[in-house]
Amino acid sequence: MFWKRRRYIVVFMAFLGFFNVYSLRVNLSVAIVAMTENRTVLYDNGTVGYEQYFDWSSSLQGYVLSSFFYGYILTPFLGGFISNRFGGNYVFGVGIGTTAVLTLLTPLAAKAGVAVLLAIRIVEGIFEGVTFPCIHAVWSRWAPPTERSRMASIAFAGNYAGTVVAMPMSGILANAWGWESVFYVFGVIGCIWFVAWMFFVKTSPEVDKWISTREKEFILESLGRTEGEQQKIKHPWKGILTSVAVWALVVSHFSENWGFYTLLTQLPTFLKDAMHFELEKTGFVSAVPYLVMGILLFVSGYLADWCQLKGYLTTTQVRRYFNCGAFLAQTVFMIVGAFILEPGPTITCITIAVGLGAFAWSGFAVNHLDLSPKSAGVLMGISNTFATIPGIVSPIITGYITSNKSDEEWKTVFYIAAGIYLVGCVIYWFGVSGELQPWSIEAQERREQEKQQPKAIESLAYTNKVSMEDEM
């Protein structure tokens, strides 16, 4: 009965939020196939011809697909900063809500010209760029440390649920009611979610009027906070920017996103060009890897927390083994799938590679909270900024590599992704830490408390001595 616990309501609503984040992001990956494919047209004089809604080359399509990330890369750092000041829940809601409204305007933008479409997608990226850093600010106030992995993993599973639903639904909608309906349907769903999120989710347990006293005290005690505590956060920038652990998770985040964004933006096109699937079937098949990943995110989150609670693995070991094990598996299956390049085996290998990425999300994706909970939003902002680069570069590179749509060209795309996974695995293995860092705000506070403790004891001893002398 998760609805009786407010922190689980936050997780559920965050899950739906990330559902919208990715459904609004990936719908174009399928819609663009319908927008640019040759369709049979019967002319008034009885002749049959072929036309495209938009006559875009593969390289131009690459720019259209990557344009979202031109804006997205600008705001992760800003999102982490403003979420600490104004509340992660508000920034998270506004970011997704605005993207939903802009999605409703996408058909008009496309008909107005490719430049207008690019502008709309860039602005969508600007507003969605704040979402991941903001949710870390939410977890820093709502997630007890022993539930951190599972709460974050369940919420992040919304990314893949959104992908699983959006890809086949986009194909169905485009075939039944035209490509414009893809943007109208998902835009309306995003607007409905925005209203619900702003009503139900509050900044922290202290200001949630529906939370029980018992749950509120449990969360605050587990996080080492007291009710009404307000603190102006001053982030230790030198410590952050010179930390090996921070840069290890940045590289890991970049590596995972390279493979993820390559498939997210190019898989429908790959299935149509190399595997020769029809549009509607392309959407369904494209969704399968993300369905597997969404399911495994629940498993990986619970397994990570269980290993820590039982004392089988330290936090550092959980992050290292889960993350690097996933990267190694992804490297192998991407290479095998590309080498075989047959519909059944290749799609199976892609599905396994993407699915096992769920275990990497129990590594780098929550690692920010281990290093410094109060700076987690900013840390996610930094890592997500670098991790957005693949979203910009990968579709463009893929567009140029696959200009002839040959099998060998697509093999190159997969080999590049596999190599980047392997590099990320090696760097994260040696650089990862799951412990509170010496430069963190929390560690500094503990040192201050330790300094004050002897003074407090000395003051108490002096008071007792004076009291005894007065009694004598």
TrEMBL record:
Main subcellular location: membrane
UniProt-annotated location(s): Basolateral cell membrane; Cytoplasmic vesicle, Secretory vesicle membrane; Cytoplasmic vesicle, Secretory vesicle, Synaptic vesicle membrane; Lysosome membrane
Transport found in the keyword field: yes
MF terms (GO), sorted A to Z: symporter activity
One family name in Pfam for this protein: MFS_1
A cellular-component GO term for this protein: synaptic vesicle membrane
InterPro entries: MFS, MFS_dom, MFS_Na/Anion_cotransporter, MFS_trans_sf
CDD domains (alphabetical): MFS_SLC17
Transmembrane regions: 63-83, 90-110, 116-139, 151-176, 182-201, 240-264, 284-309, 321-341, 347-366, 378-401, 413-431
Keywords per UniProt: Cell membrane, Cytoplasmic vesicle, Glycoprotein, Lysosome, Membrane, Symport, Synapse, Transmembrane, Transmembrane helix, Transport
Keyword Chaperone in record: no
All copies of domain Major facilitator superfamily (MFS) profile, residue ranges: 9-436
Record protein name field: Sialin
Origin species: Anopheles christyi
Lineage of the species this protein comes from: Eukaryota, Metazoa, Ecdysozoa, Arthropoda, Hexapoda
